[in-house]
Amino acid sequence: MDAAERGQLFVFAENFLDHHIERLRTIALGIADQPAQFPVNGINVLNEEAYQGAQTRNVAVAFAEEKSTDPTESTYRTTLASLNQPISELQIATDAAEFYRAVRISGSSDGQEWSYWGSGVVYRYQQRGTSRELLRLEFPESTGNKFLRVEVINGDDQALANLHLALSAVPRTLTFKQAAGQQYRLLYGNEKAATPQYDLGHYFDSGPPKPVYRVLALGPEEGTANYRDPRPFTERHPELLWSALGAAILLIGLTAIKALRSTGAPAARV
Questions:
Q1: Which of 21, 102, 117, 127 is the most exposed place for a label (fewest CB within 10 A)?
Q2: Residue 164 resides in a domain
Q3: Last residue of a domain, one of 136, 169, 202
Q4: Is it the case that residue 263 has pLDDT exceeding 60?
Q5: How far apart are CA 160 and CA 97, in angstroms?
Q6: Are residues 34 and 74 in the same domain?
Q7: Is pLDDT at 8 greater than 90 in this prediction?
Q8: What are phi and psi of 201, to 5 degrees?
C-alpha cells in the first residue's frame, strides 16, 4: 500500500467516524499492507467540534490622531462610552495600495497610565498574482478602561494614507422564561453585582434565536426612582471622612503644642 492509498484510507476512516461515532461503542480498524508489516505503535480517536465565531457589531467611537513621541509610529486615541464596553476587534480602512504594519493596542482608565491590550499585523499586497489582505485585528476581550489607544508602527515608511479605525464587540443577549401576565424590567449599572447562577444556563439551547423564541426590544431608558445606594455612608460621602481626618490632625497638633508649653522647665541660672 503506497502513501496515497494510506491517505485515502485515513480519509475514509475519518469520514466513517464522523458519521457513525455517535451510534457505536466499539470500533475495529484494520490496515492492510501486503509487502511487509505495517508497524502501529498506537491509535488515537479524537472528537472535534467546530463552532462558528461570534458575530461582532460596530461600536460607535471616533478616533483622533495624536502627536507621537516616536517618529516611526502613528498614534490614535478614542474615548469609550462606558467602562464596561467589551471591545474585542479593531478594523482599519486605508487608501494605501500595499502595506504591512504592526499594530499595538492599549487601554487606560484615566488617560495617563496605559496597559497593554493586544497587538498584531495588518496588511495588503500582491504576491504572485494573488491579492493578500488582512484589515482587522482580534484581541482578548477587555473592560474597565475609558480610553483606548492604537499605535501603528510605520518604521521608515510613510504613514498609511487616509486611515480610518473602527471597533467591534460581541453583542450580548438576555434570555429568560416569560410568564403570562407579568411585566419585566432590566436593571443595570451596579458595578459590584456578581455573576448570577441560574438553572436555565445549564439546559438552555444556546445559539441563534429560533422561531419558538420571541425577540423583544427594550423600551425607553428610565432612572430608578427608589434606588438606594448600598454602600456605607462614608463611601458615599468620602469628603466628610477626609474633613474629619483633617480636623483630627489639627486638634492633635494643637494639643501637642499646648502640652509642650505647659510642661516646659525654666532655664537654669548661673
A1: 127
A2: yes
A3: 169
A4: yes
A5: 10
A6: no
A7: no
A8: -65, -15
Contact of 153 with 87, CB cutoff 8 Å:
no
The helix/strand/coil state of 7 is: helix
* One-letter amino acid of 20: H
Q: How far apart are CA 82 and CA 79, in angstroms?
A: 9
Q: Would 208 be classed as within a structural domain?
A: no
What is the span of the domain harbouring residue 2? Answer: 1-50
Cα dihedral angle (33, 38, 43, 47), rounded to 10 degrees?
-40
Q: Give pLDDT tens digits for 152-170.
A: 999 999 999 999 999 988 8
CA-to-CA distance for 115 and 105, rounded, in angstroms? 9
List Cα–Cα distances, 86 to 56, 168, 195, 246, 249, in angstroms.
Answer: 11, 9, 16, 40, 44
65 in the same domain as 36: no
Can you give the CATH number for the domain in which 164 is found? 2.60.120.260
Residues 6+ apart with CB under 8 A from 119: 102, 103, 104, 105, 137, 139
Report d(CA 65, CA 74) in Å as an integer.
Answer: 8
Q: How much is the pLDDT for 52?
A: 57
Residue 138 CB coordination number (10 Å): 13
Distance of CA 251 to the CA centre of its chain: 50
Compute how many other C-beta atoms are within 10 angstroms of the C-beta atom of residue 106.
19
18, pLDDT greater than 60: no
The 8-class DSSP code of residue 207 comes to S
Together in a domain, 64 and 144: yes
Q: Are residues 68 and 150 in the same domain?
A: yes
Query: How much is the pLDDT for 159?
Result: 92
Q: Which residue has the higher pLDDT, 86 or 151?
A: 151
